[in-house]
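Now read this:
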Amino acid sequence: MNNEIFLKVIGKSFLKFLETSARSNKKLEILHGAIAEDIKNRLGDEYTVSSLGLGEGKEAKMMGRYIDKVVDITISKNNQDLAGIAIKFVMNNYSQNSNNYFENMLGETANIRANNKKYFQIIILPEQMPYYNNEGSIKKWEKITDNNIDKYIKLSRDNEDVYFHTPVKTLIFIVKFPDLDINEIKTKTSYKNYYLNMDNVSLEVSNSISENFGDRIILNNYEDFIEKVVFSIRSI
């Protein structure tokens, strides 16, 4: 899977999210399944990859140092878990939850890596997304900028051998949805219907932020990220 195909998979996942409920895992089956299948094809049959949307369609539980964790994608060999990949696709209300997302990422990464397993992260963010109030009205539009990812820039320069909360590699992938008139789209329903009624929801890679990351984070390059993941797993 290359960057172009990855964008199409993200688009399909986004549309499935709009078609179903926020709690439905159908959108995850599309996104997680495609990434898991790509990893399995690259690694070969001697490895086992567990994920929604692939094979039996089940996630696996990895043993952590402190607690066991159901992981989005688990890679194992000879019945031994080797690595896990966590995937976060944020659809709305990013500023409200961004610190929680980050803290949860640090905690789950430390828990798995402290048990001598490799752990990777994929974070997908729309360049612009709605911020809803409790009634489902759009309170404002959030645009991802360099300021939103300052904490990730610091994380990207951590020494993974010293800090177990640092993923081996993290992909931050920022996508640009087709333009809409923010003065016309006022509610969750109108936002959903706008994209569902489009003939073609074509996504692009966003250039809204500059690349100031260290080695731990890869920006907007799925192919580079997945090649490094596969190389890292094969080196175990």
